[in-house]
Amino acid sequence: MLRLEGLGPTIVAVMWLETALAFLFIGARIYCRRFLRQVSGWDDILMVATGVLLLLYSAFCHAAALHGFGRHSATLTIDQFSEANKLEIIGQTFCIIGIAASKATVALFQLRIVEVLWHKIYLWFFLITMAIICVLVALFDFVRCDPIAHVWNPTIEAYCWISTPSFSAMSIFLSAWSAVVDFAFAALPWVVVWKLEMKQKERLLICCAMSLGVFAGLCSIIRAIALNGLNARSDYTYETVGLILWSSTELLTSIVTACIPTLRPLWQQIFGGSTNGNYGYGGSGRENGSYRLRDQHHRNPQSSNTKTTVSHHHDDDDQSERAILEDGIKRTDQVTVTFEADDDKRKRSQPW
Question: What is the pTM of this model?
Answer without folding.
Answer: 0.76
